[in-house]
Amino acid sequence: MGSDRKIEMIIVSEEIIKPSSPTPESLREYKFSFLDQIVVTCYIPAIFFYQNPSFSSSSTVVDHLKKSLSNTLSKFYTFAGRIKGNSYLLCDDSGALFIEARVHSQLSHQALQNGTVFQNLNPYLGIEPYADCDASSMDERRNIPLIVKVSLFDCGGVAIGVCMSHKLGDLATIINFMNIWGALHRGDAKTGNLNLYLGYKYFPPLENIPQSYMGPINNLVMKRFVFDKEKIAEIKKLMTSSNISNPTRVESVSTFIWKHIVDVVKSKKSSKTKIFVLSHAVNLRPRISINNSPDPNTIIGANFSVVSHGVSSEEEMKFEDLAKVVRNCIRKIDHELPMIIENGSVYYYNILGEAMGFFSKPDLGLCFFSSWCNFPVYEVDYGWGKPVSVGTVAMPIKNGVNLMDTRDGEGIEAWITMSEDEMAMLPHELLSLQNSHLHP
């Protein structure tokens, strides 16, 4: 599973899995919220690796996964529909795509080592999640909102790769789906409720919102860096000494990574960057008043916002300055959200238009963070125990950073996508944060 290890995979079968019970006629049309409309047309990819599950045969586990998926789709009926442009999804029970594969190698989560380059986890997914396409050339398969790929290893290990349309949700949605699927698979009927329409209520759709697509990945590589609780404690000390009270893990690690990326870019003589911008995706669910729904993560849809803040490259870029930017950036939405909700989607659309004009500047250096922390990614249990590892694939965004909890829940894994030459310039302290190396 490292970059130097080729995956020997054979596709065994492809099958459409339909819901175990039909969707009521009254629920056949699921309208996108404004947030669903403006999100990039792509899939959210996540891969869950399980080591040596106890089952009698590979055919048995696949059959059981198909059956439990069918039962899950009857609850997540939107995932079995078909996307119709950028306005709605037809919940016609067309089904999700299920792909079965065999991997002729051993599953070794030890291969997921600190600093490993990841370019070959894509085979564990049923589709390229960030394909460069437009409406005229879009593969018909890309209208399927859910594509699952189950890969069985010679050693008995299992990889479940899931791609969910970003139009139907974000990471909170996909993890909620996976946990309910796992619960149904292991025979637990207490799976909770879903809230499909709260995003639509607060962010009603607008007409003629064009779809947006990601471009191709050119000369970008992804590496995974692990910050255990001791490393994070050291970085928190830097945050506290920078007059940031009670810094969170995400604030601390984001600041530390951003500081190093800025230093790398500034050190290049060829750099023309004049403004460094930090963008952070922020989950809106806990920030929205929810009636009769104790768990905000039951809301499906792309219920997140991206907040940004820029600093001039002429500034000294001290750690304490960047720390304040990170905190202000992440907490900015708490001040803006009430005004956005009060003034509606048109107001928000105008704000985004101004931001996109700013982002298009050629002298801008963007660093985009998406935090998967505090989502129960390692709680997805099909009766085989927790996954030994959870992975993703590179976003086609230079200086894109995915943060997620480590398996013990106390550390953070940072999946960083950078240009190959700049990745090589990152200091060793991102791999080994000894006290002698940990300087702002």
Describe this structure in words.
With 440 residues, the protein is of the alpha+beta class. Helices cover 27% and strands 23% of the residues. It has eight helices and 15 strands. The protein has a six-stranded mixed sheet with strand order 1-6-7-8-3-13, with helices on one face. Strand 7 and strand 8 (158-165) form a beta hairpin. The longest helix has 41 residues, at 319-359. The protein is globular and about 60 Å long. Mean pLDDT is 80; it is low at 109-119, 290-294 and 432-440.
What is the 3D shape?
A: globular
Summarize the amount of helix as a percent range. 25-40%
Largest sheet properties:
6 strands, mixed
Secondary-structure element pattern, one letter each: EEHEHEEEEEHHEHHEEHEEEEH
Structural class: alpha+beta
**How widely separated are the two ends?**
33 Å
Radius of gyration over C-alpha positions, nearest whole angstrom:
22 Å
Q: How many individual helices? A: 8
Round the mean pLDDT to the nearest integer and report it: 80
Strand order of the largest sheet: 1-6-7-8-3-13
Low-confidence stretches: 109-119, 290-294, 432-440
Q: Estimate what percentage of residues fall within beta strands.
A: 15-25%
Q: Tell me how many strands there are.
A: 15
